[in-house]
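input
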Amino acid sequence: MFFKGDKEELAIDAERVPKHIAIIMDGNGRWAKKRGLSRKMGHKAGADTLEKISRCAQDLGVKHLTVYAFSTENWKRSEEEVSAIMDLLRKYLDEHIKKCKKDNFRVNMIGDPSRLDRDIQEKINTLTSLTKDNTGLYLHIALNYGGRDEIERMVRKVAAMAAAGDMAAEDIDDKIISENLDTAGIPDPELLIRTSGELRISNFLLWQLAYTEFVFSDKLWPDYNENDLKEAVYNYQNRDRRFGGRK
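output
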């Protein structure tokens, strides 16, 4: 497939589109500040961008899309901003519950839901149940998620299994660890995209990003568009992936 890049027409090999893309959707607040808008309006614009990028990813043939929506560290933000984000999350979930069959997305949450309000937990469970048989893009939304928190929860789970005699300490390996993370059964991301010019992973998918290719964009998340996603995929396809070996 071909698309128009910044300077030339670029070709994406449909056979080598990454099966799993992860995105750190950064820059909503700065986008709003530049326009004299509230941070809430920035997060609303970011949610609209997620809609467009999810559809584009599905059209490209991406099977899994994991997005960093709210981290364990985001609770440190002002009560007003956290409340606004949660209200937008409620609206986002309600809208997807209404049109889940049309979009054909399968939706999943990763992270610790226990700190989220009960009604949000119920909406997540409803959306997950309604979309479990959908056949399109598998959208994983990271909510109250932190890579270190995920690993801590995994360690406690595996330690409890070992203490109960379900396994010996020497049985714990890469496979056991992966099977007890939030992303159990999901392939590791081949491509990570971060917007807003920041060059860090911010406690996101620490185990899963071991051999992921990174693409950083200077664009603020609400300005990120379908062509930007295609350019990121094109960039990925032109990398030499050796996974620690030689060619």
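quick obs: The beta strands are 2-4, 9-11, 20-24, 64-71, 106-110, 138-145, 191-194, 213-216.
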